[in-house]
């Protein structure tokens, strides 16, 4: 491995650590405002991380090498590892008395926008800790969108170029320069966050709750301030507001930018948007009707909770308005399979993602046609674009690796003594970055506090694998990668 490449990766990671240490001052100020003593914890952690990051950046400063695929793979993994470790420090040294595995799990859950938690009695936790969880998720959302739009297409991990898929059917980039696009993305991301916070505040949340939930809704992370999530508010208006923003933030951000900045409605013709909204409405309507018929819940109420909870699962946010596993077997099965699916590429959502289902469906249709007319020439298309062989291969590699890792992880959790539902759903909810699983332990009204450290390490790795699109991490296990 080129030493100049390693030096550059460490330098960039140190700069990011420096930025994250600065972000620790925000929860410090929140605790100081509310008169909590944890403000000193965040101030000390910020100083410690900032000093180490500054020294590391000064020691590794130098001319950067040309950006390559090898550098991209290594940089993405190192950055997320640094974010996770730095994010865990305040949790570990807080009064919560978390083990290192629990602290790391909480930080990874935030930075990957998963939303699973090992902290109980959230209403008694200091505002600074709650803000730090939300801030990790919000910053993680920025990194995830940047990863999906700029890095993964170059690495050929995400299949067809996201820029081409998400800009418009013309195949042109929505903006000529990446710097312009980045500024537009940040403006849209912040604007949607402010709109979400204000909407929550107007419809009944307190100011602090609105800020925290606004951050974690836009990041599709699901961290809240109460153990029973949105059931603590008992407001249907809040549920519909949250459903709207969770759905919007599951759409490709490049499309949102083209739509909001340039007013181009044709950008919404992206096939993955139609597919995502179609299976969201299908799950939600069927779930609402099922709850209405089976349990006698009033139809408007049943549809409200169904749309909210299935939007939460499919957007991989992880909020819950009630224990939907009590609706009946169909709701449990639907929630389990919805956990695999996820939102759109280039959004903050996780999961397999809708565009892969579009490509996979077209590959199957094309293959069936070839069985009938073997000598005919058919192309796999995504909208008006051809999907090349490399992109098709990437889709198959991703889905195969995804299922394989889920199976291996589930068996590992079963060996640790967990029942089938807990073992399988805990791994897929981590791999898809959803948050809650199935069952009384980790279901919508549970959390991961009762799990032991080895299982938390397994799930932490699964969260990172899912967020970094699996192949980005697995490529580091190939010996060829490390050869000069």
Choose one word for the global shape.
Answer: globular
Q: Give the helix level as a range of percent.
A: 55-70%
Structural class: mainly alpha
Largest sheet: 2 strands, antiparallel
Binding site for K(+): 113-114, 316-317, 433-434
Subcellular location: Cell inner membrane; Cell membrane
Keywords: Cell inner membrane, Cell membrane, Ion transport, Membrane, Metal-binding, Potassium, Potassium transport, Transmembrane, Transmembrane helix, Transport
Pfam families: TrkH (PF02386)
How does this model look, in words?
The protein has 484 residues and is mainly α. The protein has a domain of 74 residues. Helices cover 66% and strands 1% of the residues. A two-stranded antiparallel sheet has the order 1-2. Helix 2 runs antiparallel to helix 3, helix 4 packs across helix 5 and helix 10 packs parallel to helix 13. About 4% of the residues have low confidence. Keywords: Cell inner membrane, Cell membrane, Ion transport, Membrane, Metal-binding, Potassium, Potassium transport, Transmembrane, Transmembrane helix, Transport. It is found in: Cell inner membrane; Cell membrane. Its main location: membrane.
């Amino acid at each position: 491995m080129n030493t100049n490449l390693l030096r550059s990766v460490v330098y960039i990671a140190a700069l990011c650590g420096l930025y994250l240490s600065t972000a620790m001052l925000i929860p410090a100020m929140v605790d100081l405002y509310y008169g909590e003593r944890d403000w000193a914890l965040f101030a000390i952690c910020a100083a410690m991380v900032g000093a180490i990051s500054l020294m590391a950046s000064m020691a590794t400063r130098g001319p950067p090498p040309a950006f390559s695929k090898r550098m991209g793979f290594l940089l993405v993994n190192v950055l997320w590892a640094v974010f996770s470790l730095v994010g865990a420090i305040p949790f570990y040294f807080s009064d919560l008395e978390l083990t290192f595995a629990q602290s790391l799990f909480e930080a990874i859950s935030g930075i990957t926008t998963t939303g699973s938690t090992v902290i109980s009695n959230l209403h008694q936790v200091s505002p600074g800790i709650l803000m730090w969880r939300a801030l990790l998720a919000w910053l993680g959302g920025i990194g995830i969108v940047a990863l999906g739009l700029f890095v993964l297409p170059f690495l050929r991990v995400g299949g067809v170029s996201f820029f081409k898929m998400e800009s418009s059917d013309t195949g042109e980039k929505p903006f000529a320069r990446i710097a312009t696009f980045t500024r537009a993305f940040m403006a849209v991301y912040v604007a949607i966050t402010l709109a979400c916070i204000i909407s929550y505040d107007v419809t009944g949340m307190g100011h602090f709750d609105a800020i925290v939930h606004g951050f974690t809704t836009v990041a599709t992370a699901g961290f809240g301030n109460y153990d029973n999530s949105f059931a603590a508010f008992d407001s249907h208006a809040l549920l519909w507001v949250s459903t709207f923003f969770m759905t919007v933030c599951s759409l490709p951000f490049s499309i949102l930018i083209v739509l909001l900045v340039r007013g181009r409605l044709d950008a919404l013709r992206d096939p993955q948007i139609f597919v995502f909204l179609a299976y969201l409405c299908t799950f939600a309507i069927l779930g609402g009707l099922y709850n209405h018929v089976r349990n006698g819940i009033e139809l408007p109420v049943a549809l409200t909770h169904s749309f909210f909870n299935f939007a939460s699962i499919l957007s991989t946010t992880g909020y819950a308005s009630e224990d939907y596993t009590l609706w009946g077997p169909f709701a449990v099965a639907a929630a389990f399979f919805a956990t695999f699916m996820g939102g759109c590429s280039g959004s903050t959502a996780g999961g397999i993602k809708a565009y892969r289902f579009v490509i996979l469906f077209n590959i199957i249709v094309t293959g069936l046609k070839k069985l009938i007319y073997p000598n005919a020439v058919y192309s796999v298309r995504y909208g008006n674009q051809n999907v090349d062989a490399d992109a098709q291969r990437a889709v198959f590699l991703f889905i195969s690796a995804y299922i394989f890792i889920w199976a291996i992880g589930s068996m590992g959790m079963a060996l640790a003594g967990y029942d089938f539902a807990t073992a399988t759903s805990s791994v897929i909810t981590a791999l898809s970055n959803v948050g809650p699983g199935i069952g009384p332990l980790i279901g919508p009204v549970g959390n991961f506090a009762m799990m032991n450290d080895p299982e938390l390490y397994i799930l932490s790795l699964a969260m990172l694998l899912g967020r970094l699109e699996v192949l980005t991490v697995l490529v580091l296990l190939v010996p060829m990668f490390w050869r000069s």
